[in-house]
Each structure stands twice: as structure tokens, then as C-alpha cells.
Write a structure and sequence with these properties.
Blueprint (H helix, E strand, L loop, with lengths): L5 H11 L6 E17 L2 E19 L2 E7 L4 H12 L33 H16 L1
Antiparallel strand pairs: 1-2, 2-3
Helix pairs in contact: 1-2
Length: 135
């Protein structure tokens, strides 16, 4: 999934809050997964996949509205933001946002991305873990 431009995220939050609401956020997921199943000391199942999508949530008092999809076109994202904005049911309003980036005090440096590890190496690690667990 291509990164959603920062300016577009700002516009989506404003649209989501345009009819009211106390808070809005955007959740973006792009997760690659690998599932390796061993039975009787041999690989029985190997599944790889990709989960990708985006969701927009608005909180209004004690209730919330959430819309999600996997189409990240600008038009589709505005539709999501518009859908959740209707949950507030107030008059149209202009929203001022402070979206300054804050650097986390904790640095999680990823030395090797899991998707960059060849499948043979992953299988070898799982087989070793299986042998250790059984011994």
C-alpha cells in the first residue's frame, strides 16, 4: 500500500470532524504475514498473505462511528470520512488541527524486516523450534 500523503490525512480528519465530534483518528494497516504449520515433524501448511486497509473513526461524547475499506483512492477516503462525520449530526463547522509530528522517545530500529527473510530460513527456524520443543 502506498503511503497516504500527510496533507490528505489532515483533510480527512477535518472532514471526519466537520459535523462535530470530539476526536477523530485514522488507522492504516499494511501487514505481511507468514504462517508455517508443522505436524509430525514436517511442514504441512505454508500460507503467506497481505492485510491492507484504512479506517477512520470519530468519537462523539460516549459514542463512536467507524468506517473502513481497502480502497485508498482519495475519492474513497473522502467517502469514509464523510460517512463517519454524519454520526455527529451537528451543523457544518471548520476544524483547526495541530498535526505536528512528535518523535517517540523510544527507538525501535528494525534491523531485518520479516518479509526480507527468505522462506527457507523461516522454515529452518520453525523446524529447529519444533525439535527443541519436542526434546
Amino acid at each position: 500500500m502506498n503511503a497516504v500523503p500527510y496533507e490528505l490525512l489532515s483533510k480527512l480528519i477535518k472532514k471526519a470532524l466537520s459535523k462535530g465530534g470530539d476526536y477523530a483518528d485514522i488507522f492504516i494497516e499494511h501487514t505481511r504475514s507468514t504462517f508455517i504449520q508443522i505436524e509430525d515433524d514436517k511442514v504441512e501448511k505454508l500460507v503467506t498473505g497481505l492485510d491492507a486497509g484504512i479506517g477512520i473513526r470519530v468519537i462523539i461524547g460516549e459514542k463512536s462511528a467507524y468506517a473502513y475499506g481497502n480502497d485508498v483512492s482519495e475519492e474513497a477516503l473522502y467517502e469514509l470520512a464523510s460517512a463517519v462525520s454524519k454520526a455527529a449530526l451537528n451543523e457544518d463547522r471548520d476544524v483547526a488541527l495541530d498535526l505536528r509530528r512528535i518523535k517517540s522517545p523510544v527507538d525501535f530500529t528494525i534491523k531485518l524486516k520479516p518479509e526480507d527473510v527468505v522462506i527457507d530460513k523461516k522454515i529452518h527456524l520453525i523446524e529447529n523450534a519444533n525439535k527443541t520443543a519436542r526434546s
